[in-house]
Amino acid sequence: MPAFTFEKITPPARRAPTAAAPEKPRGVISQMIDRIAERRARRALRTEHAMRRDEKPAE
Length: 59
Fold this sequence. Notes:
Strand content: under 5%
Number of helices: 1
Shape: elongated
Order of helices and strands: H
Distance between the termini: 99 Å
Largest sheet: none
């Protein structure tokens, strides 16, 4: 008879993915940052478009 034995530890059971949980509403700060970023991107596109329009085609 052995002097000691090891206890078998079974791995934890895998949980099935739960149904899509409703997302938390975004915070006010996150919304403000999104608005600022969107405005900055629009402004960058507008200035880039204006720069292209000002360039004259080389003849």
